[in-house]
TrEMBL record:
Keyword Signal belongs to the record: yes
This protein's UniProt keywords: Signal
Source organism superkingdom: Eukaryota
Signal peptide segment: 1-21
Biased composition (Basic residues): 217-226
Provenance organism: Penicillium salamii
Comp. bias intervals (Low complexity): 204-216
Protein name: Uncharacterized protein
Region described as Disordered: 202-226
Length: 226
């Protein structure tokens, strides 16, 4: 159902241009840091499921909900990733009309939030990579479902980062560093997808397809906000 909703949102963006007020640098930094916390929380859930698989209820705190079994925990991972994707798309909408950030302090605040979110995504993708074998053992559908969720999230993140990077002056060190970090996230996402393809006879083909699909999807989303 979420995927249908996401497709509808993307299609709406392609056909229309939202007129929204510009977002302040402080709001952008806060949103980035909140997304980072969500990313770290999902990573922790992945590790908890990996380490306590089939060992009974898994204690989960905060926004991730109450106790759950390993199987239900996997479903929660999907839900949290979908939620993150929806938040990111909303944030992209609200930064569309934000002008380039010229103040050094404001640039630093946004970049620190950006770096924090990047770090959470790198750790989340690494968690998926290292837990792929165990997750597939718990539920065989994760072999296809987790890569699908990663690709959807990556497409949203790609559009988001594209817009965030555009807020830094083109010749600034923040712009160059943020661009490099975005490339790192792309690499870690591909590695996580590959970890779930590993052992499959069509793994290489699936990973190549994932790269093409993600690239096309992200380009469409970027165009939606200009």
């Amino acid at each position: 159902m979420y995927h249908i909703f996401l497709s509808f949102v993307v299609a709406l963006c392609l056909g229309t241009h939202w007129a929204v007020a510009a977002t302040t640098s402080g709001e952008i930094a806060n949103s980035l840091n909140e997304l980072a916390q969500q990313g770290f929380a999902i990573k922790q859930l992945v590790f908890e499921i990996n380490s306590t698989a089939d060992a009974g209820p898994i204690p989960v705190s905060g926004s991730l909900g109450a106790q759950m079994t390993a199987h239900n925990g996997i479903q929660d991972i999907y839900t949290e990733m979908d939620t993150m994707g929806a938040v990111i798309l909303t944030d992209v909408k609200y930064i569309t009309n934000t002008p380039i950030i010229t103040g050094q302090t404001e640039q630093q605040d946004v970049y620190e939030g950006y770096s924090n979110f990047v770090q959470s995504l790198l750790e989340l993708m690494d968690a998926f990579s290292s837990s792929a074998t165990q997750l597939k053992a718990i539920n065989s559908t994760t072999k296809d479902k987790v890569p699908s969720e990663i690709r959807i999230l990556q497409s949203a993140v790609d559009a988001y980062f594209y817009n965030i990077i555009g807020l830094f002056p083109a010749e600034s060190s923040y712009n160059a560093q943020a661009t490099n970090q975005k490339a790192q996230v792309d690499t870690h996402c591909f590695q996580a997808v590959w970890a779930f393809d590993l052992g499959s006879s069509n793994g290489s083909q699936a990973t190549a397809s994932a790269r093409r699909s993600s690239s096309l999807h992200s380009r469409r989303m970027k165009r939606a906000f200009f």
